[in-house]
Amino acid sequence: MPLTRRAPHSLLSLAVVAVLAPMSAQSAALPAEEVAALRAEIAALQARLAALEAQAAAPAPAVAPVAEATPTPRVDAGPGLEIESEDGDASFGIGGRIHYDVYAHDADQVESTGGSEFRRARVQVEGEAAGWGWRVQAELSGRNTDLRDVYLERGFGDSTLTIGQFKPFRSMDELTSSNDLSAMERGFGSASGLFADRQWQQGVGLLTGFEAGSFGVSAFSLREDNTARNEGWGAAARGTWAPIREGDRLVHLGAWYSIENGGENTPGTAVEVAYGGRRGPEALLFESVDGRDFDQRTGGVEFAGTRGGFHWQGEWSRATVAGLAGDGRLEAAYLQAGYLFGGVREYDLGEGVFGSPTGIGEGLWEVVARIDRIRLRDAGDREARRVVLGTNWYVNDDLRFMLNWTRGKDLATGDEPSQLALRAQYVF
Predict the structure, then answer these.
(1) Distance between CA 111 and CA 331 in Å, rounded?
(2) Boundaries of every domain in the chain
(3) How many other β-carbons are positioned within 10 Å of the β-carbon of residue 129?
(4) Can you say how many angstroms the Cα of residue 339 is from the centroid of all Cα atoms in its chain?
């Protein structure tokens, strides 16, 4: 028995001895009743001592283990669904977007018919586990049913590695989410023109952010769904710089370059633009044939900025396209400006793109104007232009209504149609 546990009992024993010793000597001189009382007290002390020693000798009772608390995941159910582990190391989410458009055309030379369509109807699942993130996004809007983003990604310090199907790093207009565009359609220098049917590509990309900007590189194939694997390759790089970021003041500068070399089974491509608005008349500027002769080199520069609610954005790009149908040098440009009444357009420094406005609250209005132009300079001089005027009503963070009026012109034919379009947009 350890000394520390024995000490109190030893002291009690000494106390009993100290009482017994003088009492034994004096018991003869005391009255009988006092002697009896003292003996009873001594007996009580001895019983107490025996009980304490027995308690000390007994094994200590086992301590029941404390049950660990069951981890409680965090669940966010509106809009969309997101589940995250208590430690934040794993997550799973479901979301999507619905863009429903209604069109009315005022035809000039080419007959156009109004109507409606689901411009986009996408569902996506995404998550993170063991340091890797992932996303699978499907387009379900009728004839456009297809996979969009399908990739794995992992962060390394200030860099992010992406493997799978995603947008190559080219053009601010192209990389801005369709949920955050100020006008209903992108410019002619995007997948709506220079990169038709080549918006998402399969490959690998590395995006690095730094104090005042970002730099991204990607290598990819030109494969489309259900085609052979020897379809050619491509590479793209984009750098951005924001020299001014002070409160609601921003200046953005950027540059990018893209190479696309066709393979034996590369599908032919056409640079065709809807100059009179979505589902309106189209101008064919360039068309290549199937096969290895397809080759396109494209470069562009960007500038954008904000000052309070006022925001602007513009790009100029040039593409040199070679194919059996001839060589072509295409130039595309747009200039856009808008104003938010009570809000400011958010800016993602790491990706070099605009996001949704701040200050939406219970409603926010925006007006926007845009000029688009594209020109084929070599194999037949052709040019198309359009002007877009629009207003946007942000009902809340998830719901937006867009109204665009478009006036276009095909300079080769003189056709000048116009379109009025309305969009209901919901993000979940």
Answers:
(1) 27
(2) 3-57, 97-427
(3) 12
(4) 25
- The SS3 call for residue 80 is coil
Within 8 A by CB and 6+ apart from 383, the residues are 373, 374, 375, 376, 411, 412
User: What residues contact 251, with CB distance under 8 A and at least 6 apart?
Assistant: 242, 243, 244, 303, 304, 305
**Global pTM?**
0.81
Beta-carbon contacts of 142 under 8 Å, excluding residues fewer than 6 positions away, are 117, 118
Q: Are 218 and 205 in contact (CB under 8 A)?
A: yes
Task: Copy the structure tokens of residue 283.
Answer: 């101008």
The candidate with the shortest Cα–Cα distance to 189, out of 100, 261, 120, 258, is 258
Angle between helices 32-57 and 3-26 (to 10 degrees): 170
How far apart are the C-alpha atoms of 334 and 171, rounded to whole Å?
Answer: 12
Segment among 5-9, 49-53, 112-116, 339-343 with least mean pLDDT: 5-9
Highest averaged pLDDT of the listed ranges 15-24, 173-182, 290-299: 173-182
Chain segment 214-236, per-residue pLDDT in tens: 999 999 998 765 555 567 899 99
Instruction: Encode pLDDT of 309-338 as tens digits.
Output: 999 999 999 998 876 455 678 999 999 999
Angstrom distance (rounded) from CA 125 to CA 340: 32
Residue-level length of the chain: 428
CATH, range 97-427: 2.40.160.10
